[in-house]
């Protein structure tokens, strides 16, 4: 088993769509950033990468590279997913907490959950979404995401020979 943790924050800006967890939410401001500013997908990407001790999102997709300008954050998430698969791990479950003043996440939580499950190729039963308001934190103009993931090593694929048949093993020992 491996645990991964990811954190991200983005500032609200006018004139851009608000994307959280790969879903466009109705709001008068979006999240600024070099890419599409999807704070939740960035935190998930870092949690997955962190779980396998891979380089983080900023190292793999540098904000100084023009090619990631306005990039769809799904690209980052898919790279992280590919990397955990390459080293033989699968996602067991994911839990996240969003901290933002507006908009209310409750009405959209189900859609975000379904979208994340689809992107990560898991059941939505293993995706937890929670949201809080930043009371007393003074971060009303930002969205923050905390994410933890649990990964499990894939079972080795066994052929139906030798070790699967105790009688054969017993025969060899005798
Ligand atoms: Mg980010």
- Tally the helices: 5
Bound molecules: magnesium ion
Summed up, the domain count is 1
The largest pleated sheet is described as: 5 strands, mixed
Description:
The protein has 174 residues and is of the alpha+beta class. It has one domain (2-156): 2-C-methyl-D-erythritol 2,4-cyclodiphosphate synthase (60s Ribosomal Protein L30, Chain: A, 2-Layer Sandwich). Helices cover 29% and strands 29% of the residues. The chain has helices at residues 39-51, 57-60, 74-86, 109-120, 166-173; strands at residues 2-14, 18-20, 23-25, 29-31, 89-99, 127-132, 142-153. The strands form two sheets. It has a five-stranded mixed sheet with strand order 4-1-7-5-6. A two-stranded antiparallel ribbon has the order 2-3. Strand 5, helix 4 and strand 6 (127-132) form a beta-alpha-beta unit. Helix 1 (39-51) packs parallel to helix 3 (74-86). The radius of gyration is 20 Å and the shape is globular. The two termini are 37 Å apart. Residues 8, 10, 33, 39, 42 line the site of magnesium ion (MG).
Summarize the entry for a quick read.
The protein is α+β, with helices and mostly antiparallel strands and 174 residues long. It has five helices and seven strands. It has one domain: 60s Ribosomal Protein L30, Chain: A.
Can you lay out the helices and strands and say which pair or pack?
Blueprint: E1 2-14, E2 18-20, E3 23-25, E4 29-31, H1 39-51, H2 57-60, H3 74-86, E5 89-99, H4 109-120, E6 127-132, E7 142-153, H5 166-173
Parallel strand pairs: 5-6
Antiparallel strand pairs: 1-4, 1-7, 2-3, 5-7
Helix pairs in contact: 1-3
The structure holds magnesium ion.
